[in-house]
Amino acid sequence: MQKGLRDNFADVQVSVVDCPNLTKEPFTFPVKGICGKTRIAEVGGVPYLLPLINKKKVYDLNKIAKEIQLPGAFVLGAGAGPFQTLGFNSEFIPVVQTESEHKPPVNGSYFAHVNSADGGCLLEKYSEKYHDFGFALLANLFASEGQPGKVIEVKAKRRTGKLNFVTCMRQTLEKHYGDKPVGMGGTFVIQKGKVKTHIMPAEFSSCPLNSDEDVNKWLRFYEMKAPLVCLPVFISRDPGFDLRLEHTHCFSHHGEGGHYHYDTTPDIVEYLGYFLPAEFLYRIDQPTETHSFGRD
Asked: Where would I find the DUF1907 domain in this sequence (predicted)?
């Protein structure tokens, strides 16, 4: 990992450390760690959003935790917001301790949507208004028991290459492991700098979006400032399950959040992340008809 990152960043340090207490700032997660029975799940997919939305595709994180054989799982990741509850489209930033026999669920999730008044970003904490655990259409999730333990700490400063932080790590894994798929998840903080993000419009497109060009005209793009807490899920290669190879959403405590693309301030950017490889991959409700656009 260190070698690959050094091709893309001026200062890189990769080490195995004890997971910091993630209940503290800036993470404020409902659990202390990301360790224990790690797994990645991809639910639904972009073909349920594009070219046109399939409104039947709604999901529940408590049910997903049971489907991946980890009731009570702590779930992080990136997905589409629960339009079935909100009444509009949004970016979903899941941070959920799912229900188990012994504990009720805790929803620390956020959703980011476009402000109808001025076109700006609105980031809201989901549980302040809603009490369900839904999402819709698609999600890339990293699940664990939420325990403390050893994690891979990655520090990277000053981007010198063209790849974003997540793509750089993913391609490094791909080069090292070749045909063997290796998936990872966790969390990282953009400590300094700004990043390009997008948020889907509140209204689903009524005309079909059939290319990346169509999608980019539809999306709303923003430049957001640090500190941003990001929730990446990435896998080195697709073993034939029509996977989205990387997907990262972010939130902040200053009202900004959405889908992370790349930093726009390479000279000053600083990343600090904590990651683990996944033991298992689950593919849930895979689309039967697919395409390759809308996955940046």
From this structure: 1-284
CA 130, 134, 140, 146 dihedral sign is positive
| Alpha carbon distance 275, 184 (integer Å) | 7
- What does the H/E/C string look like for 178-199? CCCCCEEEEEEEEEECEEEEEE
Number of residues in the chain: 296
Residue 181 Ramachandran class (φ > 0 left, ψ -120 to 50 alpha, else beta): beta
Phi, psi of 85 (to 5 degrees): -100, -45
Residue with tokens 């589409």: 80
pLDDT in tens, 233-292: 999 999 999 999 999 999 999 999 999 999 999 999 999 999 999 999 999 999 999 998
Residue 126 lies in a domain: yes
Place of tokens 């903080």: 189
In a domain, 161, yes or no: yes
| Token representation of residue 267 | 């000279």
Cα–Cα nearest to 190, from 78, 80, 32, 27: 27
In sequence order, the β-bridge partners of residue 281 are 40
Residue 294 within a domain: no
- How many CA atoms, within 13 angstroms, populate the side-chain half-sphere of residue 213? 0
Query: Span 74-86, mean pLDDT?
Result: 98
CA-based nearest residue to 39, from 226, 213, 216, 279: 279
For residue 169, being part of any structural domain is answered with yes
